[in-house]
Amino acid sequence: MHINITNPADASFNSLHVAGIIPIPDNMMRDHRKIAFYDVTEEDPYRGLAMYTGMGIGEHYAGRNWEDRAIMIQGPSALTLKDAARNLLLDQGFTEEEIPVPLRAKPKAANYDARVDSMRREMQRQWGTDGGRAMELHNETGFQPKPINVAKAVQYSLMPSGSVLKIPDSLWQSYVYASLLTGSALRGCKVLIFAPALASAPSSAGPTMARAHGLFSALIYFQNELGDEIEAEGGLLKIGLYAPRFGVGDLRGRVNQGRETVEGWLRTIYPANPATAAVLDSLDYIMEEAGFGGEYLVAADTSESPKLHLKANLLLSGPAWESLAGRPEWGPVLREYLLYLARQTGPLADRLDVREEPAELTEALRDLVEAVLSDATPEQRGRGIAYLSVGSTNMDYRSMVMDGEVMVTVTGWQALAGVLDFTLLNGLCEWVDDLDRLDESL
Asked: Using CA atoms, how far apart are residues 147 and 408, in angstroms rounded to an integer?
């Protein structure tokens, strides 16, 4: 076992190059990445597994009332993570001989590419399309490259008109990212920005909330003053403040709150779907089938307000969204998804291994993908864009400029995991469009 403390702060070092005349101490430049991986190797592309998340290591993060997400990657896309871990140690002064053996670079096995091609063909056979693509990016700590910023700028400014963009974060403070997204709304994109209300903010200090209030005040003014221009292009700009009335462990309460959230503009994104409505009508039976108990690991979570710590983005082009929204195949997917969530929050002995894929959920998702592909023309397939990003990056300047961060983006049908997740998130928000409501929430 190797334990390494990287990026140790030097108390004697202060920088005047980050915030002008204000000295920034060295310990402000932290490695904020949250990654776990095992057996990622050039010898076998599918032996190991990598998990990326925004969730920290601490007992309060293990509580039921943290709204967090993680994504697991298996295959050749995870191999660059091994390189990133090795380069981090080299940056800290390790020599090549001091690098732990599992992290040392090796030549790929002779059959490496053949195994990847075989898996791609198997995906094509099972799903009618390959497994999509995955890309991981790292912002290095301090004055080092920040490719995640570039990737976000590309996604936020170049999605075509008609796209749906859902961007939540616990620290929404970047006017740069907000400007790119408002520009996309003016071009005809439907942009939904999520942030925590005061009671659900993981970092609720006065300066933090004041900066969020300033940004959202500007966004509300923008959406109201340029509402006609946005609407003329078919765009949308909405600010949702995460304010659930039920704990993350109370799945029944959360789903019911989501159904009560009736905003007329939501119908421009989500058409009525009798198949999913029927599943939600039978929610009590689904909870009973799952043996739902909503057990809490930390006693305080029974009374604490849920905290929005989610660092994930969902972006779909108009043709991709239109081919998915309102389909009856969502009914079985939703039912199996709710069963899966209920079992995750039930008795510990009944919970699935996080690496286990429920066969019924996988089959329902496959039916949905097959139906979408069978109805799509080659031209429509070519115009379908779907991205799901998960990682550690916040939407603030510290994350952009100083911190080490990681972000994984998956494409194609792999991004569908985020569609239902973000649909539930819509209903747990107060959608604000005037400063009085903003003041009440923040």
From this structure: 12
Kindly report the number of other CB atoms within 10 A of residue 439's CB atom. Answer: 11
DSSP 344-395: HTS-GGGPPPTT---HHHHHHHHHHHHHHHHH--HHHHHH--EEEEEES--S
pLDDT value at position 346? Answer: 67
394, 397, 402, 404 alpha-carbon torsion, rounded to 10°: 20
Q: How far apart are CA 167 and CA 395, in angstroms?
A: 9
Q: CA–CA separation, 301 vs 211, rounded Å? A: 28
3-state secondary structure of 193: strand
Please tell me the predicted confidence (pLDDT) of residue 300: 62
- Name the helix (H) or strand (E) containing 117: helix 112-127
CA distance 375 to 333: 18
pLDDT averaged per 10 residues, the chain (length 442): 81 78 82 94 94 86 81 92 94 93 94 94 86 90 92 97 96 96 97 95 91 96 95 96 86 89 86 93 87 64 79 94 92 93 75 83 93 87 91 94 94 88 91 93 88
**Is there a contact between 108 and 44 (Cβ–Cβ < 8 Å)?**
no
The whole-angstrom separation of Cα 95 and Cα 419 is: 45
Report how far residue 223's alpha carbon sits from residue 433's, in angstroms, rounded to the nearest whole number.
Answer: 8
Q: 330-344 and 417-427 helices cross at what angle (nearest 10)? A: 80
In whole angstroms, how large is the CA radius of gyration of the chain?
Answer: 22
Which DSSP string do the residues of 222-276 spell out, in sequence order? Answer: HHHHTHHHHHHTT-EEEEEEE--SS-TT-HHHHHHHHHH---GGGGGTS---HHH
Closest CA to 78 of 406, 313, 392: 406
Q: Helices 359-375 and 330-344 sit at what angle, rounded to 10 degrees?
A: 150
